[in-house]
From TrEMBL:
Any GO MF annotation of the entry: vascular endothelial growth factor receptor 2 binding
Main location: membrane
Residues annotated as domain Ig-like: 33-130, 135-224, 234-317
PROSITE patterns: IG_LIKE
SUPFAM superfamilies named in the record: Immunoglobulin (SSF48726)
Name of protein: Cell adhesion molecule 4
Species the sequence originates in: Sparus aurata
Keyword Acyltransferase carried by entry: no
Location in the cell: Membrane
Gene Ontology terms describing biological process: homophilic cell adhesion via plasma membrane adhesion molecules; regulation of Rac protein signal transduction; regulation of wound healing
Length: 417
């Protein structure tokens, strides 16, 4: 009956009216209890997670409900599993709601899931399943090794994410802008960010980090920490003994070495000679017990790595222990030249100045300038003390004189009463 009537109407009315009328008829039909419909909801889920795909039914009258995957393969035929994939489960089938569950979701499961009702007029709805792939902690690759004075090229990589992750290089809380490249690997993306930074030896061990941001991580980020390894040539410094050395004393020289990589072998030698027999080398330290004047000479400490070599020398002068070293006639003022002497690389001990005669047990020049400072200080303090006493005396006398005057002036006033 109905098709005939609508056909008649359609013939009578122009096309737009016919379309409007058909819609109206459909709406009217749906108000009646016999009209059925499905409604599907889009789903977003993380890879490996569980997706729930739901179809809402309206006025379900027991018709067959069919659910199909994006390839239009039937998963469930009215509650009965059709496709052999255990990850799909029908969890609910009521007259209002049909719900299936998909566990261990992979990116290949993405797409539209069809929810279909076989009725007089076939209704279907599509639920779009979207899969998010959060990035793993990124990795850092060194494209060019960091040598002092050069540049280091670092690439931070996030091989798989969906949508593409955002990478950020950070040093001391500040972002270092990188060159970003993104590659589409079908469903997922690989992202990389490359930075080039100049490096000095002070940058050795500096902390950098690469952070990955992604919608699936919420506000969290995945961080890869990286420490700069800057290669540099060694530096060598001999720490000299303080004071002068006499026959019978023992000498201990320590060679302080830096470098990356740290030189493994430290070589001690004596220029134009062989090391004395009594010299003992243990690691960076050269030790000679019971010095004799024949050990006078220049001692050398050398170290090397792949990036260079370095050396420092120390000139040993052994004084005899008979005469005190007071032969010098040039009166050297007790200026603090000793500090220069200690830090300088030319490690020849100078003769102590004769102006101060310290006890012969302690002939070091260092000790003398140290004792010179207290003498000057004590002198100054004494002068100050004397000056203060004189001042106090003057003030006291002056005050007492004034007070006497005031007594005199007060006495007459008291006398009036
Ligand atoms: C579901 O996803 C599809 C494809 O992304 C989109 O066209 C549609 O509008 C979405 N539906 C809803 C209700 O969000
Ligand atoms: C389809 O399944 C529903 C729920 O189990 C049932 O009520 C209905 O009768 C079934 N329809 C047919 C045609 O088998
Ligand atoms: C989930 O699926 C992946 C492949 O998509 C598979 O390698 C993995 O073993 C599965 N995990 C579980 C718990 O089934
Ligand atoms: C080592 O010997 C050479 C030649 O014999 C000489 O020129 C040089 O000054 C000497 N070096 C030292 C530190 O004695
Ligand atoms: C060693 O050096 C001291 C100090 O300059 C000097 O007095 C002495 O003669 C030197 N001895 C030898 C053997 O060179």
């Amino acid at each position: 009956m109905r098709p005939v009537r609508s056909a008649v109407l359609c013939r009578l009315l122009p096309a737009p009216f016919s379309l409007a009328l058909r819609s109206l008829v459909l709406v009217l039909l749906c108000i009646t209890p016999r009209c059925q419909a499905v409604q599907a909801e889009n789903v977003t889920v993380m890879e490996g997670g569980t997706a729930e795909i739901s179809c809402r039914l309206q006025n379900y009258d027991g018709s067959i409900v069919v659910i199909q995957n994006p390839r239009r393969q039937t998963l469930f035929f009215n509650g009965t599993r059709a496709l052999k994939d255990d990850r799909f489960q029908m969890v609910l089938f009521t007259p209002r709601l049909v719900r299936i569950e998909l566990t261990n979701v992979s990116v290949s499961d993405e797409g539209g899931y069809f929810c279909q009702l076989y009725t007089d007029s076939t209704h279907h709805q599509v639920a779009t399943l979207s899969v998010l792939v959060p990035p793993e902690t990124p990795t850092v690759e060194v494209k060019q090794e960091a040598v002092e004075g050069g540049e280091v090229e670092l690439t931070c990589m996030s091989p798989r994410s969906k949508p593409a992750a955002t990478l950020r290089w950070v040093r001391n809380g500040r972002e270092i802008p990188g060159v970003v490249s993104q590659q589409d690997n079908g469903k997922t993306f690989s992202v990389s960010s490359t930075i080039r930074i100049p490096v000095e030896r002070k940058d050795n061990g500096a902390a950098l980090s690469c952070e990955a941001f992604h919608v699936a991580l919420g506000g969290q980020k995945r961080i890869r920490h990286y420490r700069l390894d800057v290669y540099f040539a060694p530096t060598v410094r001999i720490v000299p003994p303080t004071g002068i050395l006499r026959e019978g004393d023992s000498l201990s020289l320590t060679c302080s070495v830096t470098g990356n990589p740290l030189p493994r072998n430290i070589q001690w030698s004596k220029i134009n000679d062989t090391l004395p027999e009594r010299a003992e080398i243990s690691g960076p330290t050269l030790q000679i017990s019971r010095l004799s004047q024949s050990y006078n000479g220049t001692y050398l400490c050398q170290a090397q790595n792949n990036y260079g070599r370095a050396a420092d020398h120390y000139t040993l002068l052994v004084y005899d222990n008979v005469s005190p070293p007071t032969t010098s006639t040039t009166a050297v003022p007790p200026t603090p030249t000793t500090t220069q002497q200690i830090t300088s690389h030319s490690t020849t001990p100078t003769l102590p100045t004769p102006s101060f005669a310290p006890d012969p047990e302690d002939p070091g020049a260092v000790v003398e300038t140290h004792s010179a400072v207290p003498y000057a200080v004590i002198g100054g303090v004494l002068a100050l003390l004397v000056f203060t006493v004189i001042c106090v005396l003057i003030v006291t006398i002056w005050c007492s004189v004034r007070q006497k005057g005031s007594y005199r002036t007060r006495e007459p006033i008291l006398a009036w009463y």
